[in-house]
Design goal:
The complex is a heterotrimer of chains A (about 375), B (about 400) and C (about 300).
Chain A lengths: L1 H33 L4 H14 L1 H25 L8 H19 L5 H30 L3 H21 L33 H18 L1 H11 L1 H6 L4 H28 L10 H11 L4 H25 L5 H16 L35
Helix pairs in contact in A: 1-2, 1-13, 2-3, 2-12, 3-7, 3-10, 3-11, 3-12, 4-5, 4-6, 4-10, 4-11, 5-6, 5-10, 7-8, 7-10, 7-12, 8-10, 11-12, 12-13
Chain B lengths: L1 H33 L5 H7 L9 E6 L9 H15 L3 E6 L6 H12 L5 E4 L5 H11 L4 E5 L12 E6 L2 H14 L4 E6 L4 H17 L4 E6 L6 H13 L4 E5 L4 H9 L3 E6 L10 E7 L1 H13 L12 E4 L6 E3 L8 H16 L5 E2 L2 E2 L5 E3 L4 E2 L16 E2 L5
Parallel strand pairs in B: 1-2, 1-3, 3-4, 4-5, 5-11, 6-7, 6-8, 7-17, 8-9, 9-10
Antiparallel strand pairs in B: 10-12, 13-16, 14-15
Chain C lengths: L11 H29 L7 H19 L2 H22 L7 H20 L13 E2 L7 H6 L1 E2 L1 H19 L1 H11 L1 H6 L4 H25 L13 H11 L4 H23 L6 H5 L1 H13 L18
Antiparallel strand pairs in C: 1-2
The chains are: A mainly alpha (about 375), B alpha/beta (about 400), C mainly alpha (about 300).
C-alpha cells in the first residue's frame, strides 16, 4: 500500500515534469513558427546539437556540470523553507578562495593534495558566504533571499577588485586575472571524455545531498523544521544550528562549483567566473522541486538547451536571444506544472487521498537529532 | 509596422539559414572524408582560387550582441562584408558567447557540425585556455584570435593572432581634438586599465600634445565593458569639469557620443563610424576595417595557404597603412588647419616616418617610459604590455 | 586657459550627484514603486529586471515607429503589465514559488526584449522632452543638471499618491490586508487573487515605465546592456525603504546618486577602488537590514505574508 502510494507519486511527478517540458518545447515551436522558422527543423537541430551524438551530448554534459552543484545551493536550504539566491556570489568567492589556496600551495605539495586543498578552501569560503545569510536569517531576522542577493553583488565587486588590483597577475594583459594555477594542479577531464571532473563532483554531491536529506536524522530534523519552525522548536530541535549548518552546506556546493571553474576550466580567477551559473542553478533547483536527484536531470535538460543555443544561431539564423526565450518558456511551464499535482485522477489512490507531499508528523522530542 | 520589419529580417535570415543547412551537410561530409590525411591544407593549394570549388566555412564568435554599435558590430560587419564579397565563403556565427567552456563548445560545434575550416573567436578572453585547448585537438583547423599573443614554439602552430594598431587612428583623432578644443581639456571614457585601452589613451594624448603641448586628457574608468549609465555619468562629469572633446574605449560608444552631443561638446568615435549619432559634434574617429583584413585572410586560406605551413603569418598586425583601421571622415566642426595637421600626421604614419612612441616619453608620475634614444615601432611587444599613462593624462591605472 | 567659466572643479562632484540622483534615480524610482506595490500585496516580483528591459525596448521601438515618445512610455507600461500578468497569475498557483517565477521571468523577459529589440538597436528614436529649470543660470553644467525629465516629476508625484493610496483608500486597505494577513482579507470578503493580480500588474506597469526612462531619457538609447541590474536592485531598495513609497523616493535618489558618485570622484582625482565603491549601495542596504532587524521583531512595515506561501 505504502509502496504503491510512493510509486504513484513518483509516476505523477515524472509525468508532470516531462509534460511540462514538452509543453515548453511545444510553445517554443509555436514561437519559432511565428518568427518564420520551421519548428520541426529547429527541433531536429536542437536534438542534434544537444543529444544527437556522443560528442554533442558531451557538450550538454559540460554545460550541465556547474549547474548541478550550483542548484544544491538553493535546493538544500529550501528544505528548511529558506529561499537562497546567493549561488552566484558563493560560486565566485569559492573560486577566489580556491585560486588563492592553489597559488599559496604552489608546487610544494603533490597535485592531489593541492587539489584537495583548493576544494576545501573553495567550499569553506562558499559555505561561510551562504552560512552568513543563514546566520543573519536566524539570529538577526534578516530576509535570506534579499541578503543573499545583496551578497552576490558584494562578491562580484570583490572579484573585480581583487583581479583588477591586489591579486592581479601583471602579465595577464588584456584580461585581468589572478596568477595562473600550476599546470600540474589542474583538474583534468574524465578519461575518454572532454567533460571535466566537476560533473562527477556534481553527481556525487547530489547523491550525498539526497541521502542526507531523505535518509538521515539530520535531514529529517531539517525537513521537520522546514515544515513548521514553531513546532520544531517545541520539539527541541536546534533550529538555529540547523539553519546555519544547512546554509553552510549549501554554500560549500556552490563554492565547490567555483573551485571546479577555476581548477578545471579557467586556470585562474577572472571575470569569467561570473557568467550566470548561479542564477541557472536557482532555476534548476526550483524546477527539480528541490530534489537533488531530480536536479541532476534538470541540469542535463538546461545543459541541452544551452548547448542548442549555438545551432539556433548558426543553422536557423535566429538571434542569440532565442535561447533565452526557449529557456524562459520551459522554466515557466515546469514551474506551472507544480500546481497541477493532485489534479489528475489517474495518480490518485482510490480509497484515501493524501495530499502530496505528506506533512512530516510533528514528532515529540524522542527523535535523536544530530547536533553539530 | 514593427511586425513587418521583424518578419523581413527573419525571412532573410531564414533563407540564409536554409542555405546554410543544406550547405553544411555537404561540407561536413567532404570535411570528414579528407581530414585524416593531415596535409589537407596543401591538397587544396593545387586547385586554390578556382571559383565554384569547395566552399570555405568560416566561424565567427562574438562575446556580445552582434549589433552593439561597437566592438562586436565592427567584427560582425567585417565578417558579413567578407561573406558578401566572396560567394565561396560560408559564414557561421554565434553571438553572446561567454568566455567559459561555452566558447570551446561553440568552436567545436562549428568544426564538427558545420565543417568550419577557420575560426575567428573575436574576444580577447577566448584565448587562454579555450582556443589553446581546441587548437591542439583540431590541428587541421586554423584559429585566428583577435588581440592575443602568439609565442613561437609555445602556442600551437595553427593559432594566429591578429589585431590592428588602432591607436594610430586615435593619435590622429587626438590631433583633431586638440586643435578643435577651446579649453585644451580632452576626456576619455575607458572601461578597464588594460594595455589595449591604455595604449589608445596614451596615443590620443600624444597626438593632442604633438600639436598643443598644454593639452590634457582626463581618463575615467567605468570598470566594465558595457555600463551605459556610468558611461553617461562619466561623460557628464567631464563636461562639468570643462572638458569639451570626449572619446572612449568601451564596447559600445553610443552612449558617450549621444551624451556629448546632448551636452553640446565635441566627440571623436571609436570602433565604428558614429557620425550619425552626433551630427554636430562628431569630429572624426578611429574605426576598424575588419572587412579588409577578413577578406585577405579568407582569400589566403582559399588559396591553400595556412598557419600550419607558415604561409600565413602567425602574427598579423598593422595600422592605417595596412588597412586594419581607418580614420572617420572629418565632421563639420573641424577647421582647415586641424584637417591639414591631421592629414600630415596620417601621411607620416602611413609611410613610417612618424613613430608614436619615440623618446623621450614620460609617464604622468614623472618617470621615463621611453628613453630619449628609444624608438618603439608599433610591432614592439613592449607596447602590448603598456601599464602607464603618459604625461598629460589625468588619471591613474591603479584599480 | 581658455574659457575657464565652464570648469567648476570639485564643485562638479555635488553637482554630478544632484544631477545623477535625478537622472539615474528615475528608473529606480519607478521600479521600486512598482515593486513596493507588488510586495505590499504579499508577493515578490524578482522578474522586474526582465520587465525593465522589455519596457525599455518597447518604449524605444514604439517611439521610433510612431515618432511619439509618450506613446513609447505607454507601450512600455503595457508591455510591463503583460509580463506582470504572467507573473501575477503563475506565482499565485498552488505550490508555485514567486521567487522562482521571478527568476524565470528575468530570463523570459530579457529574451523577449533582446529578440524583438534587435532591429531597434541601430536607429535613433525621438527622446522625451525635458523641462529646463536651469535657464536662469549661466553655467552650462548647472543648466544640464537641471534638465529634468517629466518622467521624474511623474514619479515624484506617484510616490506620495501611492502613500496616500495605501493609507487612506479602500483599495489601499485591501492591498495591505491581503499582504499582511490574507486570512483577515478573506474574512473581509476580498478576493486575494484579484488584489494580488492587480498589484503585480500595476507594479509591472510602473517598472515598464522605469524601462522607458532608461531608453527615452537617460542614458537615452536601446542596447541589450542598458540595465545594469536596476530591476533586481529594486527588490533590495524596497526593503531599504521599508515598503514606504515616500522612502522609496529617497532611496531611489540615493541609489541614483551613488551611480554618479564614482565617475564624479574619479574626475577630480580620487580613483582607488572603484569596484568596491560600486558595491557601496549593496553593502549599505545589507548593513541597514542587519542593524534594524531582530529575530523577534521583523522589519517594521514588512507585509506579513511576504515570503510565505499563503
Amino acid at each position: 500500500m505504502a509502496l504503491s502510494q510512493s510509486w504513484r507519486r513518483t509516476l505523477e511527478s515524472l509525468c508532470l515534469s516531462f509534460g511540462a517540458i514538452l509543453a515548453g518545447i511545444l510553445l517554443f515551436g509555436v514561437f519559432c513558427a511565428l518568427a518564420g522558422t520551421n519548428p520541426f527543423a529547429v527541433y531536429g537541430s536542437i536534438w542534434k546539437a544537444a543529444f544527437g551524438t556522443w560528442s554533442t551530448f558531451q557538450n550538454t554534459l559540460v554545460r550541465a556540470a556547474p549547474l548541478m552543484l550550483s542548484a544544491l545551493c538553493t535546493a538544500l536550504p529550501a528544505r528548511l523553507g529558506l529561499v537562497i539566491i546567493g549561488n552566484e556570489g558563493a560560486l565566485v568567492v569559492g573560486g577566489l578562495a580556491a585560486v588563492s589556496m592553489g597559488l599559496a600551495m604552489g608546487t610544494a605539495f603533490p597535485p592531489f593534495i593541492v587539489q584537495v586543498g583548493m576544494a576545501i578552501a573553495g567550499m569553506i569560503m562558499g559555505g561561510i558566504w551562504i552560512g552568513a545569510a543563514g546566520w543573519l536569517r536566524h539570529y538577526r531576522g534578516v530576509n535570506e533571499t534579499i541578503s543573499s542577493l545583496l551578497l552576490n553583488y558584494v562578491a562580484i565587486a570583490l572579484l573585480n577588485h581583487l583581479v583588477g588590483g591586489p591579486l592581479r597577475d601583471p602579465s595577464s594583459l588584456n584580461k585581468p586575472s589572478t596568477f595562473p594555477l600550476a599546470e600540474v594542479n589542474m583538474l583534468g577531464s574524465i578519461p575518454g571524455t572532454r567533460v571535466h571532473w566537476g560533473l562527477l563532483y556534481g553527481l556525487i554531491a547530489c547523491i550525498i545531498a539526497y541521502f542526507l536529506m531523505q535518509r538521515t536524522t539530520f535531514g529529517f530534523a531539517a525537513r521537520t523544521a522546514g515544515g513548521n519552525i514553531r513546532a520544531a522548536k517545541i520539539a527541541g530541535l536546534p533550529v538555529g544550528k540547523l539553519t546555519v549548518m544547512i546554509c553552510f552546506l549549501a554554500g560549500t556546493c556552490a563554492g565547490l562549483a567555483g573551485m571546479v571553474e577555476v581548477a578545471a576550466v579557467q586556470g585562474a580567477a577572472n571575470e569569467s567566473l561570473n557568467v550566470g551559473y548561479g542564477y541557472g542553478g536557482i532555476l534548476v533547483a526550483f524546477a527539480a522541486r528541490h530534489n537533488p536527484l531530480a536536479a541532476v536531470l534538470i541540469s542535463l535538460l538546461v545543459g541541452g538547451i544551452l548547448a542548442s543555443g549555438g545551432i539556433l544561431q548558426r543553422a536557423h539564423g535566429l538571434p542569440d536571444a532565442t535561447v533565452l526565450i526557449f529557456q524562459g518558456l520551459v522554466f515557466l511551464m515546469v514551474l506551472y506544472s507544480d500546481s497541477l499535482y493532485g489534479k489528475f485522477g489517474v495518480f490518485k489512490e482510490k480509497p484515501i487521498m493524501i495530499e502530496p507531499p505528506a506533512p512530516p508528523p510533528p514528532s515529540p522530542g524522542q527523535e535523536p537529532v544530530m547536533t553539530v | 509596422m514593427s511586425r513587418k520589419r521583424i518578419l523581413n529580417v527573419s525571412r532573410r535570415q531564414v533563407i540564409r539559414g536554409i542555405l546554410a543547412t543544406s550547405a553544411f551537410g555537404l561540407t561536413a561530409k567532404l570535411g570528414t572524408a579528407c581530414s585524416p590525411a593531415g596535409s589537407g591544407g596543401t591538397d587544396a593549394a593545387a586547385e586554390g582560387g578556382a571559383s565554384g570549388g569547395e566552399p570555405l566555412t568560416i566561424g565567427f564568435i562574438y562575446v556580445g550582441p552582434k549589433d552593439d554599435y561597437g566592438y562586436n558590430q565592427a567584427h560582425a560587419e567585417g565578417a558579413a562584408g567578407t561573406a558578401s564579397k566572396f560567394s565561396w565563403v560560408k559564414l557561421v556565427e554565434e553571438a553572446n558567447v561567454p568566455e567559459t567552456t561555452a566558447v570551446a563548445e561553440s568552436m567545436r560545434s562549428m568544426i564538427d557540425i558545420d565543417g568550419a575550416k577557420a575560426i575567428f573567436p573575436t574576444s580577447f578572453g577566448y584565448f587562454d585556455p579555450h582556443i589553446l585547448k581546441l587548437a591542439e585537438e583540431y590541428p587541421d583547423v586554423q584559429f585566428f584570435h583577435a588581440g592575443g599573443l602568439y609565442q613561437e614554439g609555445k602556442t600551437p602552430k595553427n593559432v594566429g593572432s591578429y589585431f590592428g594598431y588602432i591607436d594610430e587612428a586615435q593619435y590622429i583623432a587626438g590631433i583633431v581634438a586638440a586643435l578643435t578644443s577651446k579649453s585644451g581639456k580632452l576626456g576619455f571614457v575607458a572601461a578597464k586599465p588594460i594595455p589595449q585601452v591604455l595604449r589608445n589613451v596614451n596615443s590620443y594624448t600624444l597626438g593632442a600634445r604633438s600639436v598643443r603641448p598644454d593639452a590634457t586628457t582626463q581618463v575615467l574608468f567605468t570598470g566594465n565593458w558595457a555600463e551605459p549609465i556610468k558611461e553617461a555619468e562619466a561623460t557628464n562629469s567631464m563636461v562639468d569639469q570643462g572638458i569639451d572633446v570626449v572619446t572612449c574605449h568601451v564596447d559600445s560608444p553610443k552612449v558617450v557620443m549621444e551624451t556629448a552631443e546632448k551636452r553640446g561638446i565635441f566627440c571623436t568615435g571609436y570602433h565604428a563610424n558614429q557620425a550619425a549619432l552626433a551630427p554636430k559634434g562628431y569630429l572624426t574617429g578611429a574605426e576598424w576595417d575588419w572587412t579588409n583584413i577578413y577578406s585577405k585572410i579568407a582569400e589566403e586560406i582559399y588559396a591553400g595557404k595556412s598557419l600550419q605551413a607558415g604561409t600565413i603569418d602567425h602574427i598579423l598586425r598593422g595600422g592605417l597603412s595596412d588597412g586594419f583601421c581607418k580614420v572617420s571622415d572629418y565632421g563639420p566642426a573641424v577647421s582647415a588647419e586641424a584637417k591639414a595637421a591631421a592629414d600630415e600626421a596620417k601621411a607620416k604614419l602611413m609611410d613610417g616616418s612618424l613613430v608614436i612612441y619615440s623618446g623621450e616619453v614620460k609617464d604622468n608620475k614623472g618617470g621615463t617610459v621611453v628613453s630619449a634614444s628609444e624608438k618603439l615601432e608599433q610591432k614592439d611587444p613592449k607596447l602590448e604590455q603598456m601599464d602607464y599613462l603618459v604625461d598629460g593624462v589625468l588619471g591613474s591605472v591603479g584599480g | 586657459m581658455a574659457d575657464t567659466s565652464q570648469a567648476i572643479g570639485w564643485l562638479g562632484v555635488p553637482l554630478a550627484i544632484i544631477a545623477g540622483t535625478m537622472r539615474g534615480g528615475t528608473p529606480f524610482l519607478f521600479v521600486s514603486l512598482g515593486e513596493c506595490l507588488t510586495e505590499k500585496s504579499g508577493k515578490i516580483n524578482l522578474g522586474l529586471e526582465g520587465t525593465l528591459l522589455t519596457g525599455a525596448m518597447a518604449a524605444y521601438a514604439v517611439s521610433y515607429l510612431t515618432n511619439s515618445p509618450w506613446l513609447g512610455v505607454l507601450a512600455a507600461g503595457f508591455a510591463g503589465a503583460a509580463l506582470g500578468a504572467i507573473h501575477g497569475w503563475l506565482s499565485q498557483q498552488p505550490r508555485v514559488n514567486d521567487v522562482a517565477v521571478g527568476i524565470a521571468m528575468i530570463i523570459f523577459g530579457s529574451g523577449v526584449a533582446f529578440f524583438f529589440g534587435k532591429p531597434f538597436i541601430q536607429p535613433k528614436a525621438p527622446q522625451l522632452p525635458t523641462i529646463n529649470l536651469g535657464e536662469w543660470s549661466d553655467f552650462p553644467a548647472l543648466q544640464a543638471a537641471l534638465q529634468i525629465s517629466p518622467l521624474f516629476l511623474i514619479g515624484l508625484a506617484i510616490a506620495p499618491i501611492m502613500a496616500w493610496f495605501f493609507r487612506s483608500t479602500r483599495w489601499g486597505l485591501f492591498i495591505r490586508a491581503v499582504g499582511d494577513s490574507p486570512e483577515a482579507a478573506r474574512a473581509m470578503g476580498v478576493s486575494i487573487f484579484n488584489v494580488r493580480m492587480f498589484s503585480v500588474i500595476a507594479g509591472s506597469f510602473l517598472a515598464g515605465i522605469g524601462g522607458a526612462a532608461l531608453s527615452l531619457y537617460y542614458p537615452g538609447l536601446w542596447t541589450e546592456r542598458i540595465s545594469s541590474g536596476q530591476g533586481l536592485m529594486a527588490v533590495a531598495l524596497v526593503i531599504f525603504a521599508r515598503w514606504n513609497p515616500i522612502m522609496c523616493l529617497w532611496a531611489s535618489l540615493l541609489f541614483g546618486g551613488a551611480q554618479a558618485l564614482g565617475p564624479a570622484l574619479q574626475s577630480i582625482g580620487i580613483k582607488e577602488g572603484y569596484y568596491l565603491f560600486n558595491a557601496a549601495p549593496y553593502v549599505l542596504t545589507l548593513l541597514i537590514m542587519i542593524f534594524t532587524c531582530s529575530p523577534k521583531r521583523t522589519l517594521s512595515g514588512v507585509p506579513g505574508a511576504l515570503g510565505t506561501d499563503s
